[in-house]
């Protein structure tokens, strides 16, 4: 029942509403739980949600954050804002064949704002916004759950009544402290799910406001229905799941506003009963509102389809093995097994992993696989709940179970593989919205148990214990998301068969300089997935640096054989072949890499080194020039150009290149050093001295800087200063080539001068 706002007798009407509320079963009646005023309930929920994830505030950029944030040019001020509307979440053009078609421009816009306000890539600001978003969503959940569990009723003054304050608080606390949400909150790329959830909930609450002046289901506000559609569109521009709120609003309208009995409606439709209006389907306004929702949703999807293009996203078999299975039976069985694992993560969120692909969950290929028990358990529970939702004589029970199942299943549909292939096996972040349905079902189950239980306080303590365990689990999991090392290592015990986990642990170790340990994990990654070209490439790189060239060549050759367009592997293969003095093959590998990646400055740099080794000086200079055009801050390419021109006697050209390089990279001490050498040979001693001193200030422990400055002073005739810097150079590196000989020459000269002076 929804009150008539135009009734002048407000006080008596409000009492009447409370009496009507008592006629329906009240979930709160049998629950031994805290009864708090609405504002206190929201403060408690906000505090709990903050405590769960607060320790992630100073975490690093981890895992996908690198690609979505650090390497995403759409965050930089020099990228036009308009590009955000034509690029995917990772900064690639939507029209590109490599694009994942994840169209989330509003999420990227918030990253860009974060970047601009922080003045760079400082993760604290990004993490703080994520924590604030989760707290805000959790607070909104108090209102959402009060409507879903207690119904929608307003006073004559337009104030919404909370008819389930205890259960709505419990459900909101379960949501706020669910450990499966850690990836969304502690992982910065989870911002997409958080923003989507925020506008998803605002759309639902906006739709509820449409019935503020409702009388008998006839009056509603078109304005708020349209606002709800717009908020749903905004949710979708944050993440694809957002569009599902329009379907849920329609379900809510039918069940709560129009009180339709789904089983009765289905029976009437099957029997072509002409009394459908009595079932509520044709009740005034319902069809119109559903038409608005459907047309709004269709328009949004059409616009998105036009923007992102008609081509499906490109995923590989390792991303989602089941979707590449030839047998329909194998695909169906494995998809259902994935659903059961998602359900288990909601029920028991203890085994959490940043990535569930690459062999983490082996395919079910036979009916004798014991894991089919999980499918049976899932469908046994679902069918039982659906039967109760349809067939129960208790209308209150039917409504809550249907809404719970609706919020559990409908937001999950975009990730279900039913409509299109997705790029993951399991992703904890996509369970953020479906967990609303889980919290409804859990809370309703708790209320039913409380009704039957004699010792209600013991049951309440048990639920409180679950909440406490969840809070501690959230805090622990958040700490694991603070750094890549902790995150990757935490996955080893959860997904030991996941090649990507071993690869990431190895990469993290290699970045820290621990090559021996990194090799072990890279080898394990290749063993688990013999087609893992990125692991082969990185392992080949380390072996190349350790001068184990034969094995490095074998690995890199295999990588390009498996993936012929793998430009990085072609370049590294060229480096190995160059080291093996197979110059023609190396040149061919470099050009193949450039063919597959047109803008590849590092490859041009290595090609230049090859040409320099072959004394093809003009080709070398051209290759390095290409590298600096593609990447103006490529210090090594600039340096090599200066050194080559210097060594070939082209001092004027070397000086011009050096000055050009320093204009682009003014604080690069290696460029200062190279240009200072050229200026010294051109007898521009004063300018050369200034650059040497500036380079030494930037890098005081470089023996060669002191040694070459000493040579400059030696030529210049400043013998005391020459002696001083020779001695510093020898102290830093006693084996510095040429320095000891020059120092001995200087000492003999000084002794001769002393004798003459004597």
From TrEMBL:
Write down the SUPFAM superfamilies for this protein, in alphabetical order.
TPR-like
One Gene Ontology term from the biological process aspect of the record: endoplasmic reticulum unfolded protein response
Name the GO cellular-component terms: endoplasmic reticulum; membrane
What Gene3D superfamilies would the database entry show? Tetratricopeptide repeat domain (1.25.40.10)
InterPro entries in the record, alphabetically? O-mannosyl-transferase_TMTC, TMTC_DUF1736, TPR-like_helical_dom_sf, TPR_rpt
User: What Pfam families does this protein map onto?
Assistant: TMTC_DUF1736, TPR_16, TPR_19
Q: What are the EC numbers?
A: 2.4.1.109
PROSITE patterns noted in UniProt: TPR, TPR_REGION
Lipid bilayer topology: Multi-pass membrane protein
Start and end residues of the TPR repeats are 499-532, 533-566, 601-634, 703-736
Does the keyword field hold Endoplasmic reticulum? yes
> In what pathway does it function?
Protein modification; protein glycosylation
A single MF term (Gene Ontology): dolichyl-phosphate-mannose-protein mannosyltransferase activity
What are the residue boundaries of the DUF1736 domain, all occurrences included? 311-383
TM segment ranges: 39-57, 131-151, 163-182, 188-208, 220-237, 243-266, 286-305, 372-391, 403-424, 430-449, 458-476
The similarity comment for this entry is: Belongs to the TMTC family.
Q: Any idea what this protein is called?
A: dolichyl-phosphate-mannose--protein mannosyltransferase
Q: What organism is the protein native to? A: Columbina picui
- Gene name of this polypeptide: Tmtc4
């Amino acid at each position: 029942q929804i009150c008539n706002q135009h009734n002048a007798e407000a006080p008596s009407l409000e009492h009447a509403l409370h009496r009507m509320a008592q006629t329906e079963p009240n979930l709160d009646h049998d629950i031994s739980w805290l009864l708090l005023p609405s504002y206190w309930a929201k403060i408690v929920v906000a505090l709990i949600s903050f405590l769960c994830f607060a320790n992630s505030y100073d975490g690093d950029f981890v895992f996908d954050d690198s690609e979505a944030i650090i390497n995403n040019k759409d965050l930089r001020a020099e990228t036009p804002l308009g590009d955000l509307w034509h690029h995917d979440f990772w900064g690639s053009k939507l029209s590109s064949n490599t694009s994942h078609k994840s169209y989330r421009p509003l999420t990227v816009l918030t990253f860009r704002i974060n970047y601009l306000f922080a003045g760079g890539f400082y993760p604290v600001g990004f993490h703080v916004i994520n924590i604030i978003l989760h707290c805000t969503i959790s607070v909104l959940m108090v209102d959402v759950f009060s409507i879903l569990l207690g119904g929608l009723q307003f006073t004559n003054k337009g104030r919404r009544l909370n008819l389930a304050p205890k259960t709505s608080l419990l459900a909101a606390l379960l949501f706020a402290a669910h450990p499966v949400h850690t990836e969304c909150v502690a992982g910065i790329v989870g911002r997409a799910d958080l923003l989507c959830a925020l506008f998803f909930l605002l759309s639902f609450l906006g739709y509820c406001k449409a019935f503020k002046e409702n009388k008998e289901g006839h009056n509603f506000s078109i304005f708020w229905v349209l606002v709800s559609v717009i908020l749903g569109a905004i949710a979708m521009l944050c993440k694809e799941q957002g569009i599902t709120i329009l379907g849920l609003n329609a379900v809510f309208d039918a069940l709560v506003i129009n009180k339709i009995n789904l089983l009765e409606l289905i029976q009437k439709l099957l029997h072509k009963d002409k009394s459908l209006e009595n079932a509520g389907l044709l009740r005034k306004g319902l069809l119109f509102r559903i038409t608005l929702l459907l047309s709004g949703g269709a328009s949004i999807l059409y616009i998105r389809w036009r923007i992102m293009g008609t081509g499906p996203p490109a995923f590989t078999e390792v991303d989602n093995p089941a979707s590449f299975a030839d047998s329909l039976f194998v695909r169906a069985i494995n998809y259902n097994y994935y659903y059961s694992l998602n359900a288990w993560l909601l029920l028991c969120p203890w085994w959490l992993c940043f990535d569930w692909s690459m062999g983490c969950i082996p395919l079910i290929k036979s009916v004798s696989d014991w894991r089919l028990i999980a499918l049976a358990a899932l469908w046994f529970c679902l069918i039982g709940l659906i039967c109760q939702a349809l067939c129960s004589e208790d209308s209150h029970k039917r409504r809550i179970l249907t809404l719970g199942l609706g919020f559990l299943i409908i937001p999950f549909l975009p990730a279900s593989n039913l409509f299109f292939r997705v790029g993951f096996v399991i992703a904890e972040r996509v369970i953020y919205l479906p967990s609303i349905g889980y919290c409804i079902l859990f809370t309703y189950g708790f209320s039913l148990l409380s009704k039957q239980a004699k010792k209600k306080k013991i049951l309440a303590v048990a639920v409180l214990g679950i909440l406490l365990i969840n809070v501690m689990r959230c805090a622990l999991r958040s700490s694991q998301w603070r750094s890549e090392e902790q995150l990757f290592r935490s996955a080893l015990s959860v997904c030991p068969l996941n090649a990507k986990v071993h690869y990431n642990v190895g990469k993290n170790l290699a970045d820290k300089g621990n090559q021996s340990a990194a090799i072990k994990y890279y080898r394990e990654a290749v063993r688990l997935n013999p087609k893992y070209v990125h692991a082969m490439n990185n392992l080949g790189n380390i072996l190349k640096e350790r001068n184990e060239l034969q094995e490095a060549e074998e690995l890199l050759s295999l990588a390009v054989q498996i993936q012929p367009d793998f430009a990085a592997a072609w370049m590294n293969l060229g480096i190995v072949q160059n080291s093996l003095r197979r110059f023609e093959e190396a040149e061919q590998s470099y050009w193949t890499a450039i063919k597959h990646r047109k803008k590849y400055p590092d490859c041009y740099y290595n090609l230049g080194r090859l040409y320099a080794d072959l004394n093809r000086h003009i080709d070398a200079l051209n290759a390095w020039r290409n590298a600096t055009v593609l990447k103006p801050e490529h210090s090594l390419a600039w340096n090599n150009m200066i050194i080559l021109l210097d060594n070939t006697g082209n001092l004027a050209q070397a000086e011009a290149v050096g000055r050009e390089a320093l204009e682009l990279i003014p604080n690069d001490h290696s460029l200062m050093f190279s240009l200072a050498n050229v200026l010294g040979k051109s007898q521009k001693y004063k300018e050369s001295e200034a650059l040497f001193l500036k380079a030494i200030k930037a890098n005081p422990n470089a023996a060669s800087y002191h040694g070459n400055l000493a040579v400059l002073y030696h030529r210049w005739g400043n013998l005391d200063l020459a002696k001083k810097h020779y001695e510093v150079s020898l102290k830093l590196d006693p084996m510095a080539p040429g320095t000891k000989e020059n120092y001995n020459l200087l000492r003999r000269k000084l002794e001769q001068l002393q004798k003459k002076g004597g």
